[in-house]
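Hi P.,

Sorry for the delay on this. The queue was packed all week, but I finally got your sequence through. Input first:
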Amino acid sequence: MSIQFNGVKLYTIAQALELDPKAHARILNLGGDWLILLGKKMAFTDDADLVGILYEAGQTGPVAFNSKTAAADYLDPHAQCFASVSC
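Then the structure:
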């Protein structure tokens, strides 16, 4: 059973790194919070391209960062494991 938030699957960083094919990580500001979305393509053109959102185990919603830099710093050690990382 997968964990979802508003109908979108949530993945821990470990789960995201195991996706095959590799996901594209996109840092976006949604409602004032910076979230890391995972997609099938570098450019998310519609909902079908969205794979999921990063979250931390034990939480019920996505990881919300207070800045784009904080989100990028979180992804930096794992960047090579994604197809691409963009913001």
